[in-house]
Amino acid sequence: MRLLIYGMQSSGASTLAFLLAQKERCAAFVDIWAPYAAPSLQGEGDVVAKVVITTAFPIALHRERLQPDCTILFLRHPEVNYRSLATKVYRHHCGLLEEKFAVLDAVFKARHEYDAILYYEDMVSNPRATLTAITQLGWSCSADFLRLERKPADIMQVNEDRYPEVVGRLEYGMGNYHGRQLSQGFAHLQDLPEPGQEVCRWCPALTEHYHELIRTQQRWGVGT
Question: Sheet of 70-75: strands edge to edge?
Answer without folding.
Answer: 27-29, 47-52, 2-7, 70-75, 116-119
